[in-house]
Amino acid sequence: MNSNKPSFANNIVNPALRIFLQLLLYGLVLVPQTSALEYSLSTKSLIAAQKSSQITSNFFFNRIRAQTEFEFSENCITELDYELFPSWIDSAMLSSNITIKNSNSRIYRIADLNHSLTKIPDSSDSAEHWQLEQNLDRALLRCQSGNWEYILGRQAVTFGGMSVSPTDVFAPVSFKALDQEFRPGVDALRIIGGLGETTEIEAGILTGKNADSAKNGAYLRSHFLLGTTDLTPLLAGFQKNKLLGLTLQTEYGQLGFVFDGAVIIQRKSAQQTSAEMPDKWTAWTLGLNLQWNENLFTMLDFHHNPMGTTKPSEYLTNAASVIYQEYPQSLLGQDYLLPSLVYQLSPLWSLSSSVISNINDGSFINTSQLEWSITEDSLLSGSFILASGKQSALSAEKQSEFGDSPNSFQLVFNHYR
Length: 417
Description:
mainly beta
């Protein structure tokens, strides 16, 4: 097969994407005065210090996000969101810790901007390093026709909504790790229809790099109420694998109950050579939440990850399996307890804390944050991230999942206008 032969994506998809983006940009300039125009700007600045048994680092990370929305008619609008990420780290060899995209990143996009606007440093360079990155996070057209909505372009696609959601099959991996305020956009066509006051159906197609069929995804899901229970069944295909999922939410007084589970069926061509390696898994998360009073809200989730292993010595080899490269799973163990709380100290101050605890090896990572609402448009927060667990003597073999994670302190300032 001639590898130089132009692909369908190069001939059709990439030019089509460029034309679509050009039409959106022309709309910014040519939109009539009578059309509705809305724009907003948000910024985030993060100062952090990290320390582990092997490495100590300091960095300064920033995000500038411009959001623009145009209403061309009563039924159609476009949205264009663009981000810049200027950042600094005290050692260039660690720059991958602050980049928005690295060698492990995975996201459903046909084509993309060149994220790095500055020179990529050498992996052995220990000097301090400034860098500038960019991200086109939204570029979409949304149209309404009766009870049906059509969304084409770069947009957020999310399922589940729990601390760990097995049904969130199209979640980006290792993308904008330091900035999860806005869900990274993926390239998709979605159709959403209302079939009644409490019933909705949705179908979508997501495209991977160059619209390669082996990297694409599709789904069909419904959302309806059964008494006081909220049900969302899901059928999805991703990179030729299959997923059958269900999200369930209900309440009993102040106590909420949430379940998110999925059966993942791996494509036959991806089966491992070992006969012991399964090709089907049932992952699930069970959660309870309680609103104790107007100030205190708590959650307790239990997550089961059958794709993981209970033996720390097998973490890295198991994570190299095909399903870990195609399904958005980053946890290495099998069983996890995830408690969290939010306490409103006053109208302007709030305290939150969450833990991810690996029950199999006893390691955990805790994030605690104090937030101050300075004004209606500005927030200042400080957080500690503390890890605990057995540390590894050799980098090629882990003794626990979180034992080698660095402890860190982060100071974050957010502003919106």
